[in-house]
Structures are given as structure tokens and as C-alpha cells.
């Protein structure tokens, strides 16, 4: 098997025996056949490792790594060490992919002369909001892709998750995932996007993301993860952009980070996680000077400035104002749009 068109698909596996067959079979069934499927058993104790070995016996494209448990980042890095493909893709072992995902992604990447391709995804198993996709392929410059990734877009979305992406190997060679942490995709993706010239956006939901298999995102452990890993990763993203001399993008990264924190505050309060809500208020107040500086930039909206000022001055009133808006104004506006 040559490497010129080979895609190395790294599948991370940890105690997901019941989900693993669906995942592996979805990769094996790809209409694009030139695949190297690397199953990384990250110290599973439920028989997932044996399932990996069984599939390796069925398909010569499958290679298996058994390693001591070290987390998703460690597993992906282990896969990268042996990957031989010209292109790199990632799948989480409890998710699965549509049969033509890599055919579409690679076709778009080549057609757009890009170094990365991004597709949409579907939420499964929870009430996640899925966009209506168009089937279009859109070529983006590095600057356009970074702006969509950091700031969002009314039509397209580029999320940190690497499983929605296909990379040209030479554009990300040498990049590794930060081990011992979660939310590791945030830093990997920003570093990868800074190293490309063009990105192909495939507006088709090819990846099937299984949401919250075991517990709610807003349990105590999830709150701890946000403060221990996710928030520091967003901070590292901003710092990386400043190190690259991308000051405007770094300011935008900070701006959208602080906007995200307002949503997190509401989630913490709704889940009666008052301790996490209080920690988030403390974080914002400790950075008030910086917040007000980035909120004066030209991309800042009046509504965002009002909300942030209210949050910094009276968090309790901010929470009540949001709840009143959700209860009365939001339904009225939605009804007005439907009738209009």
C-alpha cells in the first residue's frame, strides 16, 4: 500500500466495547479505500482491546496499538508515531462516520489545493442543535478559516474537534497533542490552522458525534474540567496567536472567550453549581481591565458590552435578566418571526 493517497485514520479506544464495532465498521466501509486504520487501545479493561485485535484479523488495513492508559492525547500521539499516510484523520471510538466522509473530504482538499478540510457533524443521543447543511464546498484562506474558527459565522462552523477534519500530513508534521489534559483539540487546531495556506470547508454533516454517553456535561466533574483544562486551553490559544504576531486575532480570541464565559455562568447557575459560578465571576472580575479593553474594539457589539458590564457589576441581576429574556422576550421574537 503506497502513501501517495493514503489516509491514516487514528481511532482512540478506551472502555467502549459496546460502541466500538459500529465505529470501526464505519471506517472500514469508507468508499475511499486507501486507508490505514490505527486503533489505539488506551489501556482498556472491558475487552475493547480484544475487539480491536479481532477487527485487525478481518482487515489488513487495520493496525492496533495496546498501551498503558494515558488519555486521548497520549493515544493520538501514539497513533501519530506509527502513521504512514500522506493525510491524517481522527475518529473517537464511541462515534462513527458516514461512508463517504473521507472521499468527500479528500476530494475537497485536493480540489481547493488546501492543506486541511473540515466537515459538519451531527449530534446523536442528546438535544444538540444541528445546522441545515447545503452540500457546498467552500475554499477558505488561512485568515478566513481562522476568523470563522475563532469568531464563529452565521453560515459555517469550524469547531476545535480534530475528528471533523482531514489534514495534509506535511502541514502538521511535528505537531502533537498536549498530554495529561482535556480540551486538547483547542491548541492543536489553532496551531494546525496557523500552518496552512488554504482550508476546504465541506458543508455536509459526515461525522456522527455521540453526545454525553454517561453523564451530563454540567455535573461536578465537568465543571472541574472546565476550570482545570478548558479555560487554560483557551488562554493558551490567545497566547499562541500573540506569539505568532497575530494581535488582532488574539484580541478576538480573548473577546469570544469572555463571551463564552457568560454562557458558562448561566449554565452553572441553571445546574445549581454555585461554587463554579462564583469562581467564574472571580475570574472575570480579576481580568476586568483587559475585558473592557477588548470590548472597545470595533467588532464588539453594544449588546455584548451591556451584558458584560451588567455581569461585572451585578452577576445576580445579569442572571435574572437572562432568565426573563428567555421566558418572555425570546418566545415573543420567535413567534413574530414565524408570523412575519
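Q: What amino acid sequence fits the structure above?
A:
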Amino acid at each position: 500500500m503506497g502513501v501517495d493517497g493514503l489516509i491514516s485514520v487514528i481511532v482512540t479506544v478506551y472502555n467502549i466495547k459496546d460502541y466500538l464495532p459500529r465505529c470501526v465498521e464505519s471506517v472500514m466501509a469508507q468508499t475511499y479505500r486507501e486507508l490505514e486504520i490505527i486503533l489505539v487501545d488506551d489501556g482498556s479493561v472491558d475487552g475493547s482491546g480484544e475487539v480491536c485485535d479481532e477487527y485487525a484479523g478481518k482487515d489488513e488495513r487495520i493496525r492496533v496499538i495496546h498501551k498503558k492508559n494515558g488519555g486521548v492525547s497520549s493515544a493520538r500521539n501514539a497513533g501519530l508515531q506509527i502513521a504512514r499516510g500522506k493525510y491524517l484523520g481522527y475518529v473517537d471510538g464511541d462515534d462513527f462516520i458516514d461512508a463517504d466522509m473521507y472521499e468527500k473530504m479528500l476530494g475537497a482538499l485536493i480540489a481547493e489545493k488546501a492543506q486541511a478540510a473540515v466537515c459538519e457533524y451531527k449530534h446523536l443521543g442528546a438535544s444538540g442543535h444541528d445546522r441545515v447543511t447545503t452540500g457546498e464546498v467552500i475554499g477558505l484562506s488561512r485568515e478566513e478559516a481562522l476568523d470563522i474558527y475563532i469568531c464563529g459565522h452565521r453560515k459555517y462552523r469550524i469547531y476545535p474537534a480534530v475528528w471533523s477534519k482531514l489534514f495534509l500530513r506535511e502541514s502538521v508534521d511535528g505537531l502533537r497533542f498536549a498530554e495529561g489534559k482535556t480540551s486538547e483539540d483547542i491548541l492543536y487546531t489553532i496551531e494546525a490552522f496557523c500552518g496552512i495556506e488554504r482550508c476546504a470547508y465541506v458543508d455536509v454533516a459526515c461525522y456522527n458525534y455521540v453526545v454525553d454517553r454517561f453523564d451530563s456535561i454540567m455535573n461536578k466533574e465537568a465543571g472541574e474540567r472546565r476550570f482545570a483544562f478548558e479555560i487554560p486551553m483557551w488562554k493558551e490559544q490567545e497566547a499562541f496567536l500573540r506569539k505568532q504576531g497575530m494581535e488582532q486575532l488574539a484580541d478576538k480570541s480573548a473577546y469570544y472567550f469572555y463571551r463564552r464565559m457568560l454562557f458558562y455562568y448561566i449554565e452553572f447557575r441553571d445546574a445549581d453549581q454555585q461554587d463554579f459560578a462564583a469562581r467564574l465571576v472571580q475570574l472575570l472580575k480579576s481580568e476586568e481591565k483587559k475585558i473592557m479593553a477588548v470590548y472597545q474594539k470595533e467588532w464588539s457589539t453594544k449588546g455584548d458590552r451591556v451584558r458584560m458590564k451588567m455581569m461585572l457589576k451585578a452577576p445576580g441581576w445579569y442572571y435574572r435578566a437572562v432568565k426573563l429574556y428567555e421566558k418572555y422576550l425570546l418566545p415573543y421574537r420567535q413567534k413574530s418571526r414565524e408570523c412575519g
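Q: And what stands out in the fold?
A: The beta strands are 7-13, 35-42, 62-67, 87-92, 96-97, 116-124, 137-141, 165-168, 198-210.
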